[in-house]
Amino acid sequence: MLYQLPDNDQLYNALLNRDPSYDGRVYVGVSSTGIFCRLTCPARKPKRENCTFYDEIGTAIEAGYRPCKRCKPLAPEANGDPAIQTLTKALEADPSRRWSEADIVKFGLDPSTVRRAFKRQFGITFLEMARLSRMRDGFTTLADGGKVIEAQLDAGYASPGAFRTRFAKLLGISPGKLKSDAILKADWIDTPLGAMIAVSDDNALHLLEFADRKALPNELKRLMKTVKGNIGVGQNTPTKQVKNELSDFFNGKSDQFNTPLVLHGSDFTKNVWNALQTIRAGHTKSYSQLAAQIGQPTATRAVARANGANQIAILIPCHRVIGADGSLTGYGGGLWRKQKLIELERQYL
C-alpha cells in the first residue's frame, strides 16, 4: 500500500457523494452483492455495514469480489461510459471529419449529456477534442515545410481566419509568424493519453505538455519571450529522443528519461522539480512530504504551486504527488490522466 487510507466514514461519504478524487485509488467491496466498484459508481448506494474499502483492485478480487459491470473498475473510468466509448471510437475512425452536435444526435446521444461527460473526464468537450484532432494534420503540414493555406486545408478548415485563430489558441502564435530557422521548435507527439506538444532547441527540451492543457498558450508565450519570438515547428534532436522515450514508457519497456531539460523557474521552483524527479515510478508522495524533502516543511502550499507550474509533464512527474489522504488532487493534464499514469507506473515497481 503506497499510502494510509482515510477512515471508513470519510470513504463512505465519498461513496455517497461519488467523489472522483479517489478514483483509481480506492474501491468499495459490497458484501450484499459480492461486487466491487469505484466510489463514483452510479449504482444505488449500499448500506454502510455492507462496505469494505480497498486501495488495490487485486486485494478486492482476492477478497472474493467481482468487478461491477456498470462502473467497470478494471478499466479507466472513461471506458465505463458508453457515450464516451462510442464517440472516441468514431473519432479514431474518422479524425479529419468536421464533427457537429447533429452527428452526436445521429448516434442516439444527447449533446448536453455528452458535453458534461467529456468535460468531467477530459476537461474538454467532444467537439473540442475533434477540432484538436484535426489540428494535428495542419501542424504536421507546417512542420514538413508546407504553406499555411495547405495546413489550413489539411486541418479541415474552410476559413483561413478560423484556422489562424485555432492555431494561435493552441500555440499562442499565429502560423504566419513561425520562423523557419527558429531557435525553438514545437512538435506534435501522439501518446495513448492524447496529443502532446514538445518544444526544444538543438540541445535540450524546454516544454512537454498535453495539447489540450489550458495553460499551454501562456506557457508558450513565456517561452517565446526568452527567444524574442524566435519559434517555429519541427523536430530537434531532444524532441526525437523524448518521443522514443515516451514510446518505451507507455509500452512498458522503460521508465527512464534521459532527455536533457531546461528548467524555466525560480530557484525554489527548480528545487521542487528536481525533487519530483527523485520519486520513482510506481511510488507517490504528498505535498507535505515533498516540502519536507527539500528542507521546507512549512512550504506545502508553495510546493503545490510549483508542482502546478511544471511545464515538462511526465518527465518531471508532478502526477506522482497526491493528497495526504491518498486522494487524487489537481493535475493540469486532467485527473483522468493522473489516474492512468499512476496505474500504468505500477508495473515498474
How do you describe this structure in short?
Keywords: Activator, DNA damage, DNA repair, Methyltransferase, Transferase. By secondary structure, this protein is of the alpha/beta class.
Report on the architecture of this protein.
The protein is α/β, with parallel strands linked by helices and 349 residues long. Among the domains are: 8-74, DNA Methylphosphotriester Repair Domain (3-Layer(aba) Sandwich); 78-127, no CATH class; 267-348, Winged helix-like DNA-binding domain superfamily/Winged helix DNA-binding domain (Arc Repressor Mutant, subunit A, Orthogonal Bundle). It is built from 14 helices and 10 strands. It has a 4-stranded mixed sheet with strand order 3-1-2-4. Strands 7-6-5-8 form a 4-stranded mixed sheet, sandwiched between helices. Strands 9-10 form a two-stranded parallel sheet. The chain starts with 7 loop residues before the first helix and ends with a helix. The model has no long low-confidence stretch (mean pLDDT 86). Residues 107-181 form the HTH araC/xylS-type domain. It comes from Maritalea porphyrae. It catalyses: a 6-O-methyl-2'-deoxyguanosine in DNA + L-cysteinyl-[protein] = S-methyl-L-cysteinyl-[protein] + a 2'-deoxyguanosine in DNA; a 4-O-methyl-thymidine in DNA + L-cysteinyl-[protein] = a thymidine in DNA + S-methyl-L-cysteinyl-[protein].
What tags apply to this protein structure?
349 residues, alpha/beta, DNA Methylphosphotriester Repair Domain, Arc Repressor Mutant, subunit A, 4-stranded mixed beta sheet
Strand content: 5-15%
Q: Structural class of the helices, strands and pairings?
A: alpha/beta
Instruction: Report the CATH topology name of the domain at 267-348.
Output: Arc Repressor Mutant, subunit A
Strand order of the largest sheet: 3-1-2-4
CATH 2nd-level architecture of the domain at 267-348: Orthogonal Bundle
